[in-house]
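ingest -> fold -> write
write: protein_1
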Amino acid sequence: MAQDERETLLALQQALSEEQFQTLKYLLGGQLPLGQLGPATRPQICSLLLQRFPGRALQLSADLLRRIGRHDLIRLYRLPGAEDEAPPGEKAPSGCGEAAAGSRGDPPPVASSPASGRARRLTEKELMQLAQKLGKEWQEVGIVCLGLEKSRLDQIREDNPRSAVMQSFEMLLEWQRREQQEATAPRLRACLAPARLDPQILDVLQSFHGD
């Protein structure tokens, strides 16, 4: 059983991009010694999780994966809480992180189910409304919820040094460019739901549904 747990943990680590792996180590900073986390490789992180959290390593990994937007891995490896990741009859979001990275060059899928038939692409005006409410934590939202690279977010901050709203807006535009026609209100709401944001943000997104 321990061997199976280690194999699953290692598979999860290997599935993360380098940016996501570094974010995961950052999130572990409050639970593991920073001196061990900094230079740790993916197999070493697996060993640390098994040593420090016996019997809970997979549960902790599932919680961390939710925070970095890799809900697809939770479902794929049937981690604790996987049954809650995709409500019955509702298509699970696939654009909340690097899960969609492998298909960026493919044409956007055409909505074919009743649940997604009414969803439309968010407008720039709507993205600006959201940007005005995101606040100073926009970079954390970009990395943890939207799966954007920190280097790109740093560039956005440098390009818009005087306005946090414009920084947030450019971040949302970056996500929209990546998702193309899938950059809808339901998709973005699903991505942001795990974060501790102002409830008004999710309310605004809810108001965009089906417009």
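write: protein_2
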Amino acid sequence: AEPPLHVLSETLFCQPDMPSLGLALTFDADQVFWFDFPGSRWTPRLPDFPPWPPAVETPAQLLQDATLCQDLRRYITELATGKIPESKGIPVATIFLAQPLVLGEPNTLVCMVGNIFPPAVDISWQLNDIPVTQGVTHTHYTPMNDLAFVRFSYLSVTPATGDIYTCIVTRKMDNISVIAYWVPQNPVPSEVLETALCGAAMALGILLALLGITMIVVARRNA
């Protein structure tokens, strides 16, 4: 069998909206590094990653690429404005827990926002309609194969019954907001679930047995 194919890609974008510049290195659609242009340094997606080799694509080289990107953008914008429709994507938000739910124990809510294009959205959180800012972290934009972007937002939580968490995705340039909700559902204990399933199976078996006896009696009477 042939070995699996892997794709290592580097995506640079520039735009009039914030962030005006972005650069991400991905491996099979998973972000590995992103370049912090204000700080002129490569930043690993996870803290356990080794540092970026300083001799590979130095900040000075990347800044030259960014300047070229901005110049091309302005030139192409002048030529295409009013002649070619602008491509935009409607963000899609999904909320899920990083760990299995246990009410009253710390956990992390993840808001995954996909189909982002252009890569310029704000992500905020609410708990019971009250804005939450503590315990919130955002990732850099990750480019996908369909030319759209994905961004994640994390919120440290301690779920309780009755809580309503809200992830709000806003694209200010178009005055568009996408909202996703998450409500903790107390999982059914496995013992209770097993007992309920056994009871349902037993009731179904008795019902089928009675139905069979009835059909036999009716058949004999007709005979």
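write: annotation protein_2
The chain has two domains: 8-80, 92-182.
The longest strand covers residues 107-116.
pipeline exit 0
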